[in-house]
Design a protein that fits this description.
- The chain has helices at 10-22, 33-42, 59-69, 82-86, 102-117, and strands spanning 2-6, 26-30, 47-51, 73-77, 94-97.
- The chain is α/β, with parallel strands linked by helices.
- It has one domain: Response regulator (Rossmann fold, 3-Layer(aba) Sandwich), CATH 3.40.50.
Length: 118
């Protein structure tokens, strides 16, 4: 599976990108909303995992763009369940709340792919 992992924390991108690669996924990273829009415009991703607080472009706008492109999006957030209200108008494959570990990330990827298949 080809995954775009988007988060402003470059250490997070490195460590979780490696975890996803170990699991057999092809991973690209982005650290702001502009990079997400640029990378998804020219390439097909099976899933985009994005932090709800990316700089430069609002995450809701990014998820709307991904929905238009037919790319499933999963949102990572430190805001707990209230983040779901922010995205209520957009289709989100899954949510994951900070803090989390590798097992939760792996579970999220499985959940997001399963949800998109529906």
């Amino acid at each position: 599976m080809k995954i775009l992992l988007a988060d402003p924390d470059r250490d997070f991108l490195t460590s979780y990108g490696k975890i996803l690669e170990i699991d057999g996924h092809e991973v690209e990273t982005a650290f702001d909303g502009t990079q997400v829009i640029t990378k998804t415009a020219g390439s097909r991703f099976d899933l985009v995992l994005l932090n709800s607080d990316l700089p430069r472009i609002d995450s809701v706008r990014i998820v709307r763009h991904l929905n238009e492109e037919g790319v499933p999006a999963a949102v990572l957030s430190g805001d707990g369940k209230k983040i779901e209200e922010r995205f209520k108008e957009e289709k989100v494959a899954a949510y994951l709340y900070f803090p989390f570990g590798p097992a939760e990330m792996r579970s999220l990827v499985r959940e997001a792919v399963k949800e998109d298949a529906k």
